Amino acid sequence: MKEFLEVDPNDSFVQHALALEYIKAEDDVTARRLFEEILQREPGYTGSYYHLAKLLERIGEANEAIKCYEKGMEESKKKGENHVYNELKSAYEELIF
User: Fold this and answer.
1) CB-based contact 57:88 (threshold 8 Å)
2) What is the CATH number of the domain that holds 87?
3) What CA–CA distance (Å, rounded) separates 42 from 53?
4) pLDDT in tens, 40-57
């Protein structure tokens, strides 16, 4: 997977997949960095908001997770991605209630 990033370090799909692998390997620091890089570069890459927010929840950063869910809902609504929006909204509501 890392080899693909060497070819194109800005490939959000590959970077997202790699971040998920880092989560499985329990390396939240690296996974977080990768998700944040994706969303800084490409805020419309909506799939990363959910995973980053869940990671933030898990490490005890609830306020940051809430912001991440909110931004993800905003971006997915702009793009008309209702399924992503509903997933983010459900996780968001579960966290705040």
Assistant:
1) no
2) 1.25.40.10
3) 16
4) 999 999 999 999 999 999
Decide if pLDDT at 8 tops 90: no
pLDDT cut 90: percent of the chain above it: 90
Which of 44, 42, 50 lies closest to 68 in space, CA to CA? 50
Characterize 68-88 residue by residue with b for buried, 16 or more Cβ atoms within 10 angstroms of its Cβ, and e for exposed: bbebbbebbeeeebeebbebb
Dist CA 72 CA 91 (whole Å): 11
Give this prediction's pTM: 0.92
Containing structural domain, residue 39: 2-96
Task: Give how many domains the chain has, as a whole number.
Answer: 1
